[in-house]
Amino acid sequence: MAAFTVSMSALVGAPVKARAVVARKAVQQRGARIVVRAEGEDAKADSFAGLKPTKAADFKSMSNDELNAQIVEAKKMLFELRMKQSTRKEYKGHHFGILKTKIAQIRTVKREREVTEGVNKRDSRKIKREERAANIYL
Fold this sequence. Notes:
The protein is mainly alpha-helical. The protein is built from six helices and two strands, in the order E-H-H-E-H-H-H-H. It starts with a strand and ends with a helix.
């Protein structure tokens, strides 16, 4: 069964009845199911396609700047997932756990490095506050 993709820009402004007619004709002619996507939605779906569980060992070879960049990227993806969830778009719920675990692993690696350098908990929190002031996504 083939999928018949209809662009949202083609249907914007059209009455509901006209949209239903387009859908019925597509199903009758092709015997296909209808998938309606917004413009540019395919690119965002691809960013979640390669999302797989990670291990803390994957992050130990990275520098602190790279770790911060990874945290920012993961938090932005979490935000996109929450937006998909709230707007009732299609999403995979297990991606929440994968991203939260990834962030926790990165933070653990950062804290382990601080412990080996001899940074106590109070100073660690101070460093974290300063990093957040510089970048709101941390």
